[in-house]
């Protein structure tokens, strides 16, 4: 993982590489294992996951933009407090904006928005990418890392919601407006619910399966190759 | 981070520059936050008022009042509430916060009051908004906020279960005081399977609210002209 970080930081990175890193290879959760606290806390439903994911995404893009455009000013000695200050300011502004204009969602996520400050993934990207790259790649990296994080949050939320309460995207209209109400699906009607998945342990279980799944997908080419060579080697 | 940092960092090592840089960023951040606060203050207050009004309308029927429920709330200092059995909560915990009583008026007569009462649930305080008619009967009760276990204790929310409507029309004599409890404690109110502490807390909160109303009844339902004079 550290090798990965250095690699991306060293050179001007091509766009495809940045996207691949953010979404899969160096995904905030799946590879870097960061931001697990807000991740596990809010993913009781897919909608909550989406809400926190989008809020984090906004902060990541804005912090990428600011850190990268101010990198000429910031000296190495005080960079960490400056980054923290930038991120904390952004998070507070997002918190205020959500409270004012997405109030219903804020009631659900309110407790977790300030936690974005402690999302080490954002400081990590500011330190290892945005402060060493031009503005455009830094913003793109923030976007891709944010999208990658959001995807994991939504996937995890959907898994837990589906198994835990038999619905998908419940209350999506609170987040996205009435127009997106069609997303709200009750997949299993008359479902009694499986409480464990909604409670914190369910978050750990679902995350475990998600990580195992990702490892498996990454290894699949190798396994196939090995199987092929084994079948070739074994006498028919 | 011991390896040398890339060229993108300029090497201005003077302590003065560092200090100015930090101060500059702190100043910029403060300005941004002040602006952000000013812009969002109005909308946030509006949303909160809308929330409160929506809850109030659920516990006070519309036909009982012709006033704006949020106008002229009445403050009752908690220190004046230590009469009788009250609730078992220690008064110091809620400190100086007065109880805010919203009054429903028809003309100048008070027809109902609503205020918030607290119960100690399984995972923290449960805030219950209680609407009471002048005759002391409950018009409605709604849980405003709680942190009970999802799937077990959250049946106290009207969105999940009609349980809380069981309180409608009751007063301190119906059921008699000793039966103001969940069935497990010899009372009349249902508990949920797997969650007794939560409904017990709500029952206690509502009973406490009724006791507050009984103790303060005269002040609460005095017609508005008089209360505005005496509220000073």
TrEMBL record, chain A:
Transmembrane region(s): 27-46, 52-70, 82-102, 138-159, 194-217
This enzyme's EC code(s): 7.-.-.-
Pfam families: Rnf-Nqr
Gene Ontology BP term (one): electron transport chain
Tagged with keyword Nucleotide-binding: no
Keyword Transmembrane helix: yes
Top EC group: translocase
A single Gene Ontology CC term: endomembrane system
Cell compartment(s), UniProt: Cell inner membrane; Endomembrane system
Membrane topology reported for the UniProt record: Multi-pass membrane protein
Main location: membrane
This protein's UniProt keywords: Cell inner membrane, Cell membrane, Electron transport, Membrane, Translocase, Transmembrane, Transmembrane helix, Transport
Assembly mode: The complex is composed of six subunits: RnfA, RnfB, RnfC, RnfD, RnfE and RnfG.
UniProt record similarity statement: Belongs to the NqrDE/RnfAE family.
Functional description taken from the UniProt entry: Part of a membrane-bound complex that couples electron transfer with translocation of ions across the membrane.
Name of the protein in question: Ion-translocating oxidoreductase complex subunit E
Organism: Lamprobacter modestohalophilus
Encoding gene, per UniProt annotation: rnfE
Automatic annotation (TrEMBL), chain B:
Record keywords, A-Z: Cell inner membrane, Cell membrane, Electron transport, Flavoprotein, FMN, Membrane, Phosphoprotein, Translocase, Transmembrane, Transmembrane helix, Transport
UniProt-recorded Gene Ontology molecular function terms: electron transfer activity; FMN binding
Superkingdom, taxonomy of origin: Bacteria
Cofactor(s) the record lists: FMN
Domain FMN-binding span(s) in chain numbering: 121-213
Pfam families: FMN_bind (PF04205)
Topology relative to the membrane: Single-pass membrane protein
A single GO cellular-component term on record: plasma membrane
GO biological process, one term: electron transport chain
Cellular compartments annotated: Cell inner membrane
SMART domains: FMN_bind (SM00900)
EC number: 7.-.-.-
Family to which this protein belongs: Belongs to the RnfG family.
Protein's job: Part of a membrane-bound complex that couples electron transfer with translocation of ions across the membrane.
Protein known as: Ion-translocating oxidoreductase complex subunit G
């Amino acid at each position: 993982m550290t090798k990965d970080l250095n690699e991306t930081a060293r050179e001007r990175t091509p766009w495809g590489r940045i996207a691949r890193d953010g979404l899969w290879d160096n995904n905030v959760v799946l590879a870097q294992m960061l931001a697990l606290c807000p991740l596990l806390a809010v993913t009781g439903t897919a909608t909550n996951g989406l809400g926190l994911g989008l809020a984090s995404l906004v902060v990541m893009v804005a912090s990428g933009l600011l850190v990268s455009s101010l990198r000429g000013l910031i000296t190495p000695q005080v960079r960490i407090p400056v980054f923290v200050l930038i991120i904390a300011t952004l998070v507070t502004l997002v918190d205020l904006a959500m409270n004012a204009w997405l109030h219903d969602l804020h009631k659900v996520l309110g407790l977790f928005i300030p936690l974005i400050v402690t999302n080490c993934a954002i400081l990590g990207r500011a330190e290892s990418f945005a402060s060493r790259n031009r503005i455009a790649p830094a913003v793109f990296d923030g976007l891709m890392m944010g999208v990658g994080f959001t995807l994991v949050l939504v996937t995890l939320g959907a898994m837990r919601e589906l198994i835990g309460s038999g619905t998908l995207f419940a209350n999506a209209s609170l987040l996205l407006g009435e127009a997106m109400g069609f997303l709200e699906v009750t997949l299993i009607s008359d479902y009694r619910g499986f409480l464990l998945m909604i409670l914190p342990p369910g978050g750990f279980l679902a995350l475990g399966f998600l990580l195992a799944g990702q490892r498996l997908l990454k290894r699949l080419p190798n396994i196939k190759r090995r199987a092929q060579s084994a079948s070739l080697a074994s006498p028919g | 981070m011991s390896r040398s940092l890339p060229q993108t960092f300029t090497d201005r090592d003077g302590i003065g520059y560092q200090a100015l840089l930090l101060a500059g960023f702190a100043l910029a951040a403060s300005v941004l936050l002040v602006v952000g606060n000013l812009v969002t203050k109005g909308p946030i207050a509006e949303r909160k008022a809308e929330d409160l009004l929506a809850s109030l309308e659920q516990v006070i029927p519309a036909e009982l009042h012709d006033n704006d429920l949020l106008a002229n709330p009445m403050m009752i200092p908690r220190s004046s509430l230590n009469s009788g059995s009250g609730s078992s909560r220690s008064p110091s915990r809620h400190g100086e916060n007065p109880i805010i009583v919203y009054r429903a008026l028809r003309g100048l007569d008070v027809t109902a009051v609503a205020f918030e009462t607290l119960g100690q649930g399984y995972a923290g305080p449960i805030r219950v908004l209680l609407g009471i008619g002048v005759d002391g009967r409950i018009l409605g009760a709604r849980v405003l906020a709680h942190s009970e276990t999802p799937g077990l204790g959250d049946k106290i929310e009207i969105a999940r279960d009609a349980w809380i409507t069981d309180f409608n029309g009751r007063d301190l004599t119906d059921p008699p005081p000793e039966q103001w409890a969940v069935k497990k404690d010899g009372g009349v109110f249902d508990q949920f399977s797997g969650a007794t502490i939560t409904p017990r807390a709500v029952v206690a909160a509502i009973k406490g609210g009724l006791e507050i109303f009984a103790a303060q009844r005269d002040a609460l339902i005095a017609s508005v002209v008089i209360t505005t004079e005496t509220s000073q």
